[in-house]
Amino acid sequence: MAIPLQTIEQIAAANDIVEVISSYFPLKRAGANFKALCPFHQEKTPSFHVSPQRQTFHCFGCGVGGSVFRFVMDYEHIDFPSAVRKLAGRVGIQVLEERGPRDAEDRQPEARRILLQLHGEAAGWFHQNLIKREFAEAARKYLKQRGITAEIAKRWRLGYAPDEWNAFGSWARGQGFSPRELLDRFRDRIMFPICNDVGEVIAFSGRVLKEKEGAAKYLNSPETPLFRKGSVLFGLDKTKRALIETNCAIVCEGQLDLISLFEARITNVVAPQGTAFTETQARMLKRLVDEVVLCFDSDVAGTQAAERSLDALLQNDLIVRVAEIPAGDDPDSLVRREGKEEFEKRIAAARDFFDYWIEKVSARLGVPVQDFQALIPKQSRSSGIGADESRPATGGTPPRHDVAMLCLVALRDEAARDFLREQNWREILAQVPDAEILVRILETELRPNDAASLNAFMATLSATDEGLVSSWLMQKVPPNAGAMVEKWWLGIRQGALRRQLDVAQNRIKLPQLSTGELVNLQKEVLDLLKELRELPKLSSATRIDGQPVDPRQ
């Protein structure tokens, strides 16, 4: 299945790139464009430019650039379809993917849409229960004791599932849903919506309000096509940018721990949907950070969870440290009692995981720490690399000058583009080094004066090529583009013919050629020499702007 090009253009046209980027960080006007400090590498002088006319961005410091889709992909660390859906949701456009006959697999997008709608509306229903219903008074009182205000509850869409067997089912049927889609399993629980990394509600975690014998303290939604417990990190939709910027993830156990830390402005936090990290969750973190600080409770369950997390984290080359949490405390109680600065000191003082583990194991075995430590090689303590080192420049090496200039005019000037497409460009460019990007530009049906069309074209490119294209779109078009395009094309044709001539002349020198082969090669050399002599005449006779072109310019 694929998203139709027409839909991509429609979404690009509806999302002004200046407005989209300004929703993440402020931009400052600089002439016809806007600029800011680049979010993709560390710098002191702004080199990140945004063009409202071309609807593109480009950083002249690290080379990253492209369409509004590329910005959201790189800034949010999501794939292209997710970026398209996120931008579509921003402007109220429905994304319908192209698919073949409606078999079971092809019906999955519709089932996914219904599940997302159900979870989103259910989150609203649970939240309204918590905020407005009399039966949720005990839940509101409990959250208040935990430092959760009405504003915080609203930001995190916290809710309450009433202690009634038919309450949710009756609501779901009234909305046209089958409650079996969500499974009506939550009773008398504070509800925490679980979101994917673009903020869509995909599941719930319910915490008991009153301790009951045999009842799990936390109960998660069952696994669905939207939700796999081992593939989701709670809070990632809100904390992703802070993770990238700090290059470090503070990992805590519970949702309340994470919310309390985030609201205390410690925002580089995540929580696994279980007691330990899975391989998938570790891979997700590795794409964002190089270091993890485990901040689990100091009880037996917390210690075991920390130890079980080690394999997955180390296998993904993450630096792992462990913060000390006093007995009887958790991150929530600590940050509310001690405050942000004291908690950050604990994180800064967190020990290397092996130091922590050795101390625990040696205590269990009754062996002195020094003796036990000498037997085990230590984990590398190389510090996490900074954002500017871990995310190298993505701008590729530009092609040679004449090819680059043809790329520029083919992207920006309608007449120059038409001239190039009328030439035998496929055959000639197949012989030209570094011409692949020019081939991509000429073979597509992009419209140089349509920013949405350019955005849709860039969406088909690699990040490297998109960075090159965005840099060309930021440059000025030569005032005499019509004349210059013929000059550059003439040079490319001459170069291709000379390479063919060199090959033919070298082959003539080979021994043991038959008479027929020799005659054919001599004829090929004469034809190539004649074509080279005639090129200037052909170029002068070609007009694309009403004036003949002098190839000696």
Features:
elongated; 5-stranded antiparallel sheet; DNA primase DNAg catalytic core, N-terminal domain; 15 strands; 25 helices; 553 residues; 50% helix; 6-stranded mixed sheet; Dna Topoisomerase Vi A Subunit, Chain: A, domain 2; disordered C terminus; DNA Primase, Chain A; alpha+beta
Which class of the largest domain in CATH terms? Alpha Beta
Structural class by secondary-structure content? alpha+beta
Number-wise, the strands total 15
Could you name the CATH topology of the largest domain?
Dna Topoisomerase Vi A Subunit, Chain: A, domain 2
Q: What is the annotated CATH architecture of the largest domain?
A: 3-Layer(aba) Sandwich
Mean pLDDT: 82
Uncertain stretches of 5 or more adjacent residues: 102-106, 379-394, 538-553
Largest sheet: 6 strands, mixed
Count helical runs.
25
Strand-residue proportion: 5-15%
Distance between the termini: 50 Å
- Shape descriptor reads elongated
Tell me the helix content. Answer: 40-55%
Compute the gyration radius: what is it?
A: 31 Å
Q: Going across the major beta sheet, what is the strand order?
A: 10-12-11-13-14-15
Number of domains: 4
